[in-house]
């Protein structure tokens, strides 16, 4: 006799009924003793949970290689995350060359500059050469792109001269990651989107100037990349990848760099088509977007974002969690709101108060407690460790749903 099936039926805002199955004898969504996978999926859909979902962003406690590479100061945070955290894995299909499977001849060189190594790349396209450079640290510091491929409109023509061949990646890695994670969490498929490619090609400054001076050219290129992303998404869905997809890139055209009109035209408009296709196939869309989002918050809900991270409070953002709940919390799950800077340098009693406040504001419905970013220093100071542990312990103590 086979293991019993638990069917989850998801009724969503105006999208009809979506469903997927969890095979095995795990409790149903909304029941006591949920698994991390069930808990996160329920939160993303604003359904009841047994306790507050807790994602300790950037602490990859199940990744043996990551853990082995951490300083011993990370150990208490890793152990607490193992004991109480809900995990999110990630897998990406790759992006080829400009979201195409076509190949172009490429030349590379390196220049050793002491503590840094400059990597130069030239792509020989049918319409001419493209050059870019990246400076990498030998001591583990963040690197920096020092030269972008697109520096003039002719370079954009070179990019678009590369033949388009649909991306058809091997999806075995997604299913392997899903099997390895099991009920400890959910694997997100990291989905390319159009604005990410435009920004990668030219950077924030040039994009901002051209959004005024060469808007029609940017929008035309955006549409080209968007159609390629839609094609890739259809393929991934046909392969059974999902149910959760995550997208980055919206912050490149969000305030304070751009206003609501730019955010709509360069991100929300195209991302809404991606969201609609995901929802039609029973999936969910998670979006990561830093910054002060007060002027565009409703656009995330309108485009079909099921979960928004990191919902930064002032001073890094401009919307408190209470305001975000009132404005879009009935349509979108909110994730984050514990500022990474506060975890590093804030008072521990303030972290406790913030977690308790967030539990009170959300009622543990449609909310995933999480830092706004990953721990980013080689060593965690004692205060930072205390704050992480306070966040986790407070979530455990006060986040149970009666």
Could you describe the 3D structure shown?
There is one protein chain. With 402 residues, this protein is α/β, with parallel strands linked by helices. It has two domains: 30-95 and 163-398, TIM Barrel, CATH 3.20.20.210; 106-148. It is 40% helix and 20% strand. Strands 3-8-9-10-11-12-13 form a seven-stranded parallel sheet. A hairpin with a 2-residue loop joins strand 5 and strand 6. The longest helix has 24 residues, at 215-238.
**Residue runs with pLDDT of under 50 for 5 or more positions:** 1-31
The DSSP helix count reads 13
N- and C-termini, Cα separation: 34 Å
The CATH architecture of the largest domain would be Alpha-Beta Barrel
Largest sheet: 7 strands, parallel
Q: Specify the structural class.
A: alpha/beta
Average pLDDT for all residues: 91
- Order of strands, widest sheet: 3-8-9-10-11-12-13
Number of domains: 2
Q: Which sequence of SSEs, written as H and E, runs from N to C?
A: EEHHHEEEEEHHEHHEHEHEHEHHEH
Rg calculated over all Cα atoms = 22 Å
Shape: globular
CATH topology of the largest domain: TIM Barrel
CATH class of the largest domain: Alpha Beta
| Beta-strand residue percentage | 15-25%
| Helicity, as a percent range | 40-55%
Q: Based on DSSP secondary structure assignment, what is the total number of beta strands?
A: 13
